[in-house]
Design a protein that fits this description.
431 residues, alpha/beta, Rossmann fold, 2 domains, two-stranded parallel sheet, 10% strand, protein-containing complex binding, transmembrane helix, transmembrane, Putative NADH-flavin reductase
Length: 431
């Protein structure tokens, strides 16, 4: 039985490749840096848990022993808290190729349509350098360059499409001149299998894409119809400067660990267009890729599809609301601590605990409000908000039960905040 390793095996493309290779009779092993993410998508698969850019050439020699095919589906969109494009796209490929030159192994490399050393984004430039390293140094290789990949899995650009198409009542018009071609993830996986089986000759570089292209607004409209939403009441035009500003904000959030599909790399890529030439793949012996409509036929939009799209919009709003609420709660208390302390002193609370409770609570509020912005801490911050809110509620029942009957409902209003924190905790998941 031939053996294959898939780098980035629990990603959108990587997982599809693992499943397709397994069905084609390969013994498959995935490589990724998170066991939790790996086991959540493919619990019965074999995994090597490593941060791919840190693997040395010697370690690759050990990993590749007895391996027939390496599929490189790893990658990142933009530099951020967890991602270094140079390390992921260039250094890792250099070491892999150096090790593979002494072994009878074929490398099937997933690149991207439109890569160029003079491209407008680091993503495309580093991908182009990886392609060049592979094509000039490897012995047995195929480079596949998909356009915008559509899948039942929603991630990155596909999640953005789903969310933008699910906006209630409106369908924003942005990037009207952008032309996009798509490809079904199953067609990408089939191309990988054909390459792994040796049906595609070594040295092939081919775009994997449908034939037709679509303007970005047209693509959004088709996704909206596919999801089953009502036609929009209004289609406001989003000015280019506003789109750019959103990208800059998303870039900043990227350094806090949030991999937003609104980052400038994604927006620039969309604005430049995502297009490829399907003829090279057909001439190399590959099967034609499905059209956008045929892809939608394979991906029925279910209720969970629509719930995800709306939740994807709601999650950042919920996180922002919680952050502002908790930050303001702490800052307002610190701005006039004597007033806050009087709430307890007027109710005969023990004097020794008044200042620590008020000041400690204010500092904890601020810490949680800041903490939920940092992606690695966000889930724990949401749980912390639940815990601290519970302490406030119990403490109020003991020290100030009359506040529950206050006409403005200061304690009752804590309950919706707890509910919002619970929803954020439940929705915060990462591949």
């Amino acid at each position: 039985m031939p053996k294959a390793i898939v780098l980035g095996g629990y990603g959108l493309i990587g997982l599809a490749c693992m499943q397709a290779l397994d069905k084609a009779g390969f013994e498959v092993c995935g490589v990724g840096r998170s066991m939790r993410s790996a086991k959540s998508v493919a619990p019965s698969a074999n995994w090597i848990i490593r941060d791919i850019p840190t693997i040395t050439t010697q370690e690759w020699l050990d990993i590749l022993e007895g391996i027939d095919v390496v599929v490189n589906a790893s990658g990142a969109l933009q530099d951020g808290a967890k991602d270094d494009l140079e390390a992921i796209h260039v250094t890792a490929v250099e070491r892999l190729v150096e090790a593979a030159t002494t072994l009878p192994v074929r490398i099937v490399h997933i690149s991207a349509a439109g890569v160029s050393e003079t491209a407008s984004t680091s993503f495309f430039r580093t991908k182009a350098r990886a392609d060049m390293i592979l094509s000039s140094s490897a012995r047995n290789w195929v480079i596949l360059r998909p356009t915008l990949v559509l899948s039942q899995e929603a991630y990155g650009g596909t999640a953005l499409l789903r969310a933008a198409s699910a906006l209630p009542l409106i369908q924003p018009i942005a990037l009207p001149d952008a032309q996009i071609q798509t490809v079904y993830v199953g067609d990408v996986a089939a191309a990988v299998v054909a390459s792994a089986q040796g049906k595609i000759r070594s040295g092939t570089i081919a775009d994997i894409t449908e034939r037709d292209s679509h303007s970005f607004p047209e693509l959004l409209a088709k996704v909206r119809r596919w999801q089953g939403w009502a036609p929009p009441v209004a289609c406001p035009t989003i000015p280019a400067p506003l789109v750019g500003a959103l990208g800059k904000i998303a870039d900043l959030l990227g350094y806090l660990g949030w991999r937003s599909p609104l980052r400038t790399t994604a927006l620039t890529t969309l604005a430049d267009g995502i297009r490829g030439n399907p003829e090279v793949w057909r001439n190399a012996g590959g099967e034609a890729c499905r059209s956008l409509d045929e892809t939608f036929d394979l991906l029925p939009a279910t209720r969970q599809e629509r719930l995800f799209s709306r939740a994807y919009i709601a999650l950042p709003l919920a996180i922002g609301t919680l952050a502002v609420f908790w930050l303001l709660s702490g800052l307002i208390t610190l701005a006039d601590p004597a007033r806050a302390m009087s709430v307890l002193s007027e109710r005969a609370a023990p004097s020794w605990m008044i200042a620590p409770a008020v000041l400690g609570g204010a500092i904890a509020d601020i810490f949680l409000g800041i903490g939920i912005f940092w992606r690695p801490w966000a889930s724990r911050a949401a749980l912390g908000m639940l815990g601290l809110s519970s302490v406030y509620l119990v403490g109020s029942l003991v020290a100030a039960p009359d506040l529950w009957a206050d006409p403005l409902g200061p304690m009752v209003k804590v309950l919706p905040g707890m509910t919002l924190a619970t929803l954020v905790w439940l929705m915060l998941d990462q591949r």
